[in-house]
Q: What sequence folds into this?
């Protein structure tokens, strides 16, 4: 069974990873798990209280296929959880690594974005980190996948879901139909 772990922190942006986790679990039968610092309950920016199954410190990379870093204000706070070694090791082990919104900052800090195409909320968001991959930044409003790494601005949970599933090899008719349903919302004239 494919296993996905999503890293959550206090004030995480709940809409950013809800679609990928729901799709993975509900449509594709993934084992979806959530981790937080010390396994503590965390509250989303929308007030959703989540009690994760495990602590970040207990993540065993040999058991997972996908590591997602959800965005949220913690990644720009004075003391974000330091998961850079975990993210770098996941990438070295060829695990799909994904970051959305400020979760992309963690990928940049870990060195994962140094030599591959990526995006974020803005180029400035990542350039504050003085990371080595600035030349590979893509200024686009949708997710970007390269070398089993998926990045997205916080406004792109649908393409984030699609690119992650594609990176995992799930690019079937079910996914195309699901994407069509989501795209239909944007066809309504304003």
A:
């Amino acid at each position: 069974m494919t296993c996905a772990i999503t890293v959550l922190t206090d004030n995480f942006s709940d809409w950013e990873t809800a679609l990928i986790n729901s799709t993975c679990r509900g449509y594709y039968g993934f084992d979806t798990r959530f981790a937080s610092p010390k396994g503590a309950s965390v509250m989303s920016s929308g007030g959703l209280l989540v009690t994760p199954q495990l602590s970040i410190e207990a993540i065993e990379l040999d058991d997972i296929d996908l590591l997602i870093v959800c965005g949220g204000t913690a990644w720009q706070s004075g003391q974000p959880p330091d998961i850079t070694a975990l993210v770098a090791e996941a990438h070295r082990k060829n695990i799909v690594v994904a970051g959305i919104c400020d979760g992309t900052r963690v990928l940049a800090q870990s060195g994962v974005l140094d030599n591959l195409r990526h995006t974020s909320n803005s180029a400035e968001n990542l350039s504050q980190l003085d990371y080595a991959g600035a030349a590979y930044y893509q200024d686009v409003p949708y997710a970007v996948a390269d070398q089993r790494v998926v990045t997205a601005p916080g406004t792109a949970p649908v393409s984030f879901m699609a690119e992650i599933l594609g990176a995992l090899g799930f690019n079937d008719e079910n996914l195309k139909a699901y994407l069509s349903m989501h795209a239909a919302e944007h066809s309504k004239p304003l």
